[in-house]
Write a structure and sequence with these properties.
The complex is a heterotetramer, with two copies of chain A (about 290 residues) and two copies of chain B (about 375 residues).
Chain A: E1 10-14, H1 19-31, E2 34-39, E3 47-48, E4 51-54, H2 57-64, E5 68-71, H3 75-88, E6 92-95, H4 102-114, E7 118-120, E8 126-129, E9 134-137, E10 147-154, H5 158-169, E11 174-179, H6 190-198, E12 205-211, H7 216-225, E13 233-238, H8 262-271, H9 283-292
Parallel strand pairs in A: 1-2, 1-5, 2-4, 5-6, 6-7, 10-11, 10-12, 12-13
Antiparallel strand pairs in A: 3-4, 8-9, 8-11
Chain B: H1 5-14, E1 22-25, H2 28-38, E2 42-46, E3 59-62, H3 65-75, E4 79-80, E5 83-84, E6 88-92, E7 96-107, E8 112-118, H4 125-131, E9 137-141, H5 149-158, H6 166-184, E10 187-198, E11 203-205, E12 209-212, H7 221-229, H8 236-244, E13 247-250, E14 255-259, H9 262-274, E15 281-284, H10 291-302, E16 309-320, H11 321-335, E17 341-349, H12 351-360, E18 365-366, H13 369-380
Parallel strand pairs in B: 14-16, 16-17, 17-18
Antiparallel strand pairs in B: 1-6, 2-3, 2-6, 4-5, 7-8, 7-10, 8-9, 10-11, 10-12, 13-15
Classes of the chains: A alpha/beta (about 290), B alpha+beta (about 375).
Chain lengths: ~290, ~375, ~375, ~290
């Protein structure tokens, strides 16, 4: 078993008829994910790669039993799409969309959390779980073919694939990889996602990929120091060379009001005993050492 | 989008906050006129959206319109942390009784709005956090209920005002205005530092800073237009790369960086630094990597005066290496020759094909990013 | 506060909804003029805030201003379910293609706003719920996120409209207007029944009903004023008792009821009914029971023409029975004699003292509410 | 033990310096309640009946460890007072105030619930628990001197006292009495409050006092029929003679859109096997019969 997803995860793709939605719906199917419905208002009655499309998430839930959603709709409508998914009763919603206004995200994510719905993203690659072959997201299928005991939790997209790839090459198997999203406000932040995977007995080691901006890494370190997580963690933090006050690609990757720089994150991790890799390519070695102990 | 002080103060004023009289001036003549109209003494404030402009000579007081005129001649065209001073804000000099700090941000951890208030201000919040952290009060406002009187009471009394006084009322209305600005304008930061009590006893935001969420600019066409007319904190290159659609940030080194994905691109910068090089920029072409996009990205850096070596680091699950290679080849062909070196690290399909194409144009393709980074750093050495 | 149809429609119109042309008329002459201006055929609608006014003869069509004039002469002054017709709303006759139902309420169980929509309308929602419950769609809107496009889509498509049509747009804007009215005016109910498609193809609220939360009237001075000028659904006695500060509802029997607390007062009414009597009213003096308040309450019922017996049922933990007794004595003294009987049941302190005071004026004090109720019913028998 | 309150309940009275607040603060103290603080903005530093008064609930929580609040502030400010209590971190808030605009209540109560705070009221007499001698509310102390095994859950005020009095006279002891409030929207409705007391092992029998308006009684009956409550319940419903469309004292006591009349509530209770008393005075007898079985 893996956290958040499992063999009973039935996925509805919101924005299924758009270019991105259509493309990744197929990749998800290929991976083995039970994609049971698509949703695009006004396109109800059509199909995408054999998957029925509905006008509303409510219908997708009622008629196909969808219990999780992955959202590809444009930024202007994405927060509403999330609210719709929550009201329709899904348990998990993954918001891939980038460039959602942060105040919109704030409202939608708080609403989802108050209703007990787990949100991954926005501006994220999603979640993939090789042991159950479920993917809600856009990770390349080829990287996630080796099931195993390592959880990867990350604020990045391609860097997650890179490190996952290095892990697999080094002989590790992946239990779950969660890209929590690069926006300042996300549904499940790096700390919360790490805590979640740590609670899964199937997980033996955790790789945490942080970056500049915010204090999720610091909060995670505090939690670890308090003993709330008793699984080996290896961390990597991107952005040591990022200048303050500049947004590094991700809306959330910014050093503001003097907080969020990579160096202090790295120091904080190390101060509580979490080893931090100097480069992404050092991660597998550090992890192997830690697991040997 | 970072608002200039004068834009931020106009917003404060629009929301009913009393601000010191001020005029925007684009020439020394306008400064002279403004100083005369406002009445001296005045303060000339360089409108550049960076912190610490005061220390950098961007804020000067003048006792007469003539002095203002002369001072402004030196200030216009000044370089402050890489930005050129083109606008001066001429504002009435205010005698200050005491200075406070007040800002409003979005707190990531609690997913609430967060006021940071300190009865001590005028220096950066980082400074206050270091020297007197116990002076900073945090008041959280949940977006689902909004700003309420009890929040305001908590902030205003922390700032040191007494209920029932006119100052209490003024401070309360500033708190309210800041909250309304935050919500109505999709701001990420609304700051007044210093927030001051003048000798006359008025509570006045002496400086104001607002950062608006770039992703929400479509909701605010007036701001979009202002940004277009005055791109403020972007260098020429940043503007150029952004127009094409890249996330681009200017750095100070000579190894040009192209990556796909923000995290990977940052880690590529870090990798170059790790091996002793100095990254020249951050250029994120986004998750995928098509021939056209790669070409455009390489062209940006081929045109960059400081860049000696271009390091392309692409990690793609389904990205085709031959596509990327062709994009690089296209860029070189369009440039018609360059003295810059290119180093490519690439993980994708059809790697052999890609290697062959790059070999034609003398560009090495690495499988290991570490090897590639070392090579890039080596090539950049004088 | 129940809004009149014309007030409700004015609000709809203010929120951009197309409504049939209409004029309020207070005299037959005004009706004639309105019919002429609007153009016949017109419909005359009695402005009384009760359901079922159509069946009671409160809605009539007229083909000419003269017919409208004549009809209105009979309608003004009509009694509809206890309310006198003082205002007629003269409105353009609309030929109807089909009728729907749409309302918005607060759902107590989920603590959300709730739209009830049915493609079949024109009859009460109770009727629809009985005959075709499957036609009613419930769309919940959480106040913390507000009305969103997906809610609107869900409602409008249920009502039978196709996306992209002008009717869809009209219906969508009615849904939006109803929601805005609900929130902006602190409404408890916003209803359009029937919501109609006209022969011309327009989506039009043919009738509109709005109930505003009485507790929120202080936020809406215009409505407060309108209620003061036209108390609409309260009888003379209800108005009188409310002015003193009592919760008062007129019933049809002859046993006057005074209780403290809403539940206890209702259960006192029920008790009288249980023993074969007919309660004349509901009069709740509130949780406590002071001498002054009891006096005022008794005076209200002493003045009531239909009341034969007044049954006072006070349950007070710390209420003093002698205080209550003195209140009753005061009321009787001020009235200077009455033919009405009074029965008192009282639980509190100093009961013996109270009993003695009441005995002086010939009023029996019971400890058992059941015994007291039986006595009240017995006394009311002819 | 009793639900919601116990020996560790430390009460802050919001609106402590007003006439009502002052009066009932004293009564609560007399009953045995640990009233540790009062709050009135601008009156910080004073005392009421020996209890320190603060400007904010936050201070009352920090300085006196208050974990429950009872709110007496005027209707215009009461919803904000509730929000303040929630933000200050209390676990239970009892809103006595009547005439709060229902849209204000809606927002405040939803906020409290989303944050896991239990709200009783508004427009309610509060909660009293004789076994632990804790009262947050305005019930007459004299009625609640006999601890026992019966829970009273009610939408009414004085009718609750009346029935409690009849129960005690008939030899029953009270475990807890909760007046959930007479408004259309309340923090804990009749159904939820009944479910809560039913889960308390100390409770042997439950008296439910309903009235016209809403469908809390019907939802409770449904829950009972589904077996979610396996404690004996006796019900009474006030308002059989209430005419439709008229508000009977309580803002929530109104038959609207054809639903909420007392007769159908009584029938629904009886249809699922919950005995309903014809008069309040029949309650003790019905309860005794039920408990004998």
């Amino acid at each position: 078993m893996t956290v958040l997803v499992g063999p009973n995860t039935k996925v509805v793709v919101q924005g299924a008829t758009g270019k991105e939605g259509r493309f990744h719906l197929q990749r998800m199917l290929e991976y083995g994910t039970k994609v049971v419905a698509g949703v695009t208002p006004g396109k109800g009655g059509t199909t995408v790669h054999g998957v029925p499309v509905y006008d509303t998430v409510e219908e997708a839930v009622k008629k196909q039993g969808a219990n999780a959603s992955v959202i590809f709709v444009p930024a202007k409508f994405a927060a509403d799409a999330l609210l719709e998914a929550v009201d329709a009763g899904v348990e998990l919603a993954v918001v891939i969309t980038e460039h959602i206004p942060v105040h919109d995200t704030l409202r939608a994510v708080n609403y989802a959390r108050a209703r007990g719905v787990t949100v991954i993203g926005p501006n994220c690659p999603g979640i993939v779980a090789p042991p159950v072959r479920v993917k809600l997201g856009i990770m390349p299928n080829s990287i996630y073919q080796t099931p195993g005991k390592i959880a990867v939790v990350s604020r990045s997209g391609t860097l997650t694939y890179e490190i996952s790839y290095q892990l697999v090459r080094a002989g590790f198997g992946i239990n779950v990889a969660i890209g929590v999203g690069g926006d300042p406000v996300v549904g499940l932040d790096l700390m919360e996602a790490t805590l979640k995977v740590a609670q899964d007995p199937e997980v033996e080691g955790i790789v945490v990929i942080g970056e500049v901006g915010g204090d999720a890494e610091e909060r995670l370190a505090k939690l670890y120091a308090e003993g709330a997580i008793n699984k080996p963690i290896v961390a990597y933090v991107a952005g040591r060379t990022a200048p303050p006050g500049k947004r590094m690609g991700h809306a959330g990757a910014i050093v503001m009001l003097g907080s969020g720089d990579a160096k202090s994150k790295i120091e904080t991790f190390r101060s509580v005993g979490i080893p931090v890799a100097e480069t992404p390519f050092e991660v597998p070695r550090l992890l192997a050492e830690l697991l040997k102990k | 989008m970072k608002l200039h002080e004068y834009e931020a103060k106009e917003l404060f004023s629009k929301y009913g906050v009393k601000i010191p009289p001020g005029r925007l001036a684009l020439t020394p003549e306008e400064v002279h006129k403004a100083a005369k109209e406002i009445g001296t003494p005045v303060v000339l404030k360089a409108q550049v959206v960076v912190a610490g402009r005061g220390k950098a000579g961007g804020i000067k007081a003048a006792n007469s319109p003539e002095e203002a005129y002369e001072l402004s001649k030196k200030m216009f065209g000044m370089d402050i942390k890489g930005l050129t001073v083109k606008k001066l804000y001429v504002t009435k000099y205010v005698e200050v009784e005491r200075e406070m700090y007040l800002s409003l941000i979005i707190d990531r951890a609690t997913r609430r709005y967060l006021f940071l208030a300190s009865p001590v201000g005028g220096v950066d919040i980082e400074e206050i956090a270091k020297t007197s952290p116990e002076k900073i009060k945090r008041v959280y406002v949940d977006p689902s209920v909004g700003l309420r009187d009890y929040h305001i009471r908590s902030i205003v009394s922390w700032l040191g005002f007494k209920p029932g006084t006119p100052q209490w009322q003024q401070a309360a209305s500033i708190v309210q205005a800041m909250y309304r600005i935050m919500v109505d304008h999709d701001a990420e930061l609304v700051e007044s530092n210093p927030l001051a009590v003048s000798k006359e006893g008025d509570v006045i935001p002496l400086d104001a800073r607002i950062i608006v969420d770039d992703n929400a600019l479509f909701k605010h066409p007036d701001l979009e237009k202002a940004l277009e007319e005055d791109p403020r904190d972007v260098t020429e290159f940043e503007a150029y790369a952004k127009k094409i659609g890249f996330h681009y940030v200017e750095l100070e080194g000579d190894v040009g960086i192209i990556g796909n994905g923000a995290g990977l691109t940052m880690s590529t910068m870090d990798l170059v630094y790790h091996f002793g090089g100095r990254p020249a920029n951050f250029l994120d072409i986004g998750g995928g990597a098509s021939r056209e996009v790669v070409k455009e990205a390489v062209k940006v850096l081929l045109n960059h005066p400081r860049v000696k070596v271009i390091f392309v680091n692409i990690f793609g699950g389904i990205t085709r290496a031959d596509e990327v290679a062709l994009g690089i080849k296209d860029a070189l062909a369009e440039a018609g020759g360059t003295t810059k070196k290119i180093v490519v690290r690439m993980k994708g399909t059809n790697e052999e094909l890609g290697r062959a194409i790059l070999a034609e144009v003398g560009v090495p393709l690495f499988e290991s990013a570490e090897e590639a980074a070392k090579k890039a750093v080596e090539l950049a050495r004088p």
